[in-house]
Specification:
With 153 residues, the protein is α/β, with parallel strands linked by helices. 44% of the residues lie in helices and 22% in strands.
Length: 153
Amino acid sequence: MLALWAALSLAAAGAELKPVDEASYPRLVAAAKGKVLLVNFWATYCVPCRKEMPQLVALEARLRGQAFQFITISADEPEQAAAAAAFVDKAKIAMPAYIRKAKDDDKFVQALDPKWSGGLPASFLYDKNGRKVRSFFGEVNTAELEAAIKKLL
């Protein structure tokens, strides 16, 4: 009975967002080597983020099975982690999903792209060698994004 209760509690907890910081982000990108990688930063408080996510999830579904990987990283504060996890579940975002736990947000943002202000949403496209080829700041045009990805596949 106790095992059943524990299993139900885990199921009720929903998605578990893995922490990512300045040190682990490059390893995340390197682990996708051999695939085109799209990393999307979003937050539950960001209306454009919530608006574009279903389009990104649909894009991932269309490209699934090809050499493509989609990773989402919530920029929510730690106290909003439960809301972020609930959004991941509701939006049917493929796991694993992550939450930013940077020691220094400014350094983290600048390391990803010096042109990035930290504004959301933001997406970064990497080629199969793990080299960043394009950054998208603000809500992205999905057709433009898909065309950029297909050029790299």
